[in-house]
Structure prediction request, 225 residues.
Amino acid sequence: GQQVMQIPQYQHVQEGEDFTTYCNSSTTLSNIQWYKQRPGGHPVFLIQLVKSGEVKKQKRLTFQFGEAKKNSSLHITATQTTDVGTYFCAGYGGSQGNLIFGKGTKLSVKP
Amino acid sequence: NAGVMQNPRHLVRRRGQEARLRCSPMKGHSHVYWYRQLPEEGLKFMVYLQKENIIDESGMPKERFSAEFPKEGPSILRIQQVVRGDSAAYFCASSAAGERSPLHFGNGTRLTVT
Prediction:
C-alpha cells in the first residue's frame, strides 16, 4: 500500500534558526496536505498543495510540492518558540479517500 | 460554530471491558475519519465513513473494533474486550467533501486500559 515517509523524526533548533522537514511518497499524489500538532493537542490543517512544483507561503512557512508530485517540504524561517510541535504531511491513498499521514517531524525550539 | 466534538476526552477501562468513543462532525460535514495515535508516533488511519456507510475500513483491526456513523447521531468507534495495547489517543476528523478536502480534527479521546 501507499507509504508516506518524513524526515527527520526529530529536530532541535535554537530560536532564530531555520527548520525544514521533508516528505516522500511511494506513489504519485494528487495533492499533499500539511498539519501541525502542538504538544497535547490535535492536528490542525495548515495547507494543501495540488499542482506540480507548487510553492505556497504562510508568513515564515514555505511549502513546496515536487515536480513529480511524490515529495514535499516545509521550511520555517527564523523559528520561534510558538513553532514547537509536530508537523505532519499527508496524502490520499488509493481510490477510497483515506488520508495517509507521515510519522511527523517533532520540532523543539530552544529560546 | 462548533468544531468536531469528541467525548469523552479521557476514558479509563479495565481489560475485558468495552470502550465507546463518540464523534460529532462539524456542522455540514458528512465524512468522518478515525485515527489512532500512540505516544510519540504518527496518526494511523483506521476507518472512513459517510452517513450509514463504511467507505474504507482497511486500517481497522479485524477483531474487537467496529465503527458506525448512523443517519442520526454521532459516529461511534467501539472497542470490545479492551487490552492494554489499545491504550492510545483516538482522533476523529471530519470533512465536507471527502477526498481531497482538509480534515478538521476533534480534541481526541485518550483511552487508558488498566
Notes: DSSP finds no helices and eleven strands in chain B. The radius of gyration of chain B is 13 Å. Chain B has a mean pLDDT of 93. The interface with chain A takes residues 31, 33, 35, 40-45, 48, 55-56, 58-59, 91, 93, 98-100, 102-108 of chain B (CB under 8 Å).
